[in-house]
Amino acid sequence: MNREYYGKLIFELSRPGRKGYRLPANGCPEAVGLPSALLRGDAPELPQVDELTVVRHYNNMSTNNFGVDTGFYPLGSCTMKYNPRINEEIAAKPALAASLHPHQPDYTAQGALEAYHKLQAALSEIGGMGEFTLNPYAGAHGELTGLMVIRAYHMSRGDSGRTKVIVPDSAHGTNPASAAMAGLKVVEVKSLPDGRCGGTETAA
């Protein structure tokens, strides 16, 4: 297969009459009682390709994504943390958390809650903290939580003067946003022509 193949959309590779793939069963019962205006009148115009074309298409698409199998993560981005594969396999087990639902009774999820509790206790000891939370759902959420904890600590000591947060102009957009949402003043540090951080302002 020449390289031109890989630059084409799968719809461009479609040929009438080719039925080399089969969609998996969705496991959902047939819907009844839906208004006719919401029902499709014609079958979806899916591409008609052979099985090998489908496999090549999705394999090619996967190589266009950045992943731990094809490259190195140079920093701990919010959405690109490296989780060891063994962690992913354990987390995917139905007996641990894969089949849990946020609204199911606590007594049915004691195993997962015990794992969370032990992890919180271990992280508290490692970090020298009184408590630890696993509630933040993303990096930006964790930023905001951390800033709120820091500010509460200073306020508990009667120190209300620490109101500024230094943020380089190259920072992730959530960094200044989190500081502002925490009621703090953002002090931006400009980058120098060679890419290093410069500026003369400092936080109180």
Describe this structure in words.
By secondary structure, this protein is mainly α. It is built from 7 helices and 2 strands, in the order ααααααβαβ. It has a two-stranded parallel ribbon with strand order 1-2. The longest helix is centred in the middle third of the chain and has 18 residues. The termini are far apart. The C terminus is likely disordered.
Write the layout of secondary structure elements.
Layout (H helix, E strand, L loop, with lengths): L2 H4 L44 H13 L21 H7 L2 H5 L11 H18 L11 H18 L7 E5 L5 H8 L3 E5 L15
Parallel strand pairs: 1-2
Helix pairs in contact: 6-7
Strand order of the largest sheet: 1-2
Please tell me how large the radius of gyration is: 26 Å
Output the structural class. Answer: mainly alpha
Written as H for each helix and E for each strand, in order along the chain, the element string is HHHHHHEHE
Tally of DSSP helical segments: 7
Distance between the termini: 63 Å
Number of strands: 2
Give the overall average pLDDT.
Answer: 82
Largest sheet: 2 strands, parallel
The helix content, as a percent range, equals: 25-40%
Low-confidence stretches: 200-204
Give the strand content: under 5%
What sort of overall outline do the alpha carbons produce when their principal axes are compared? Answer: extended
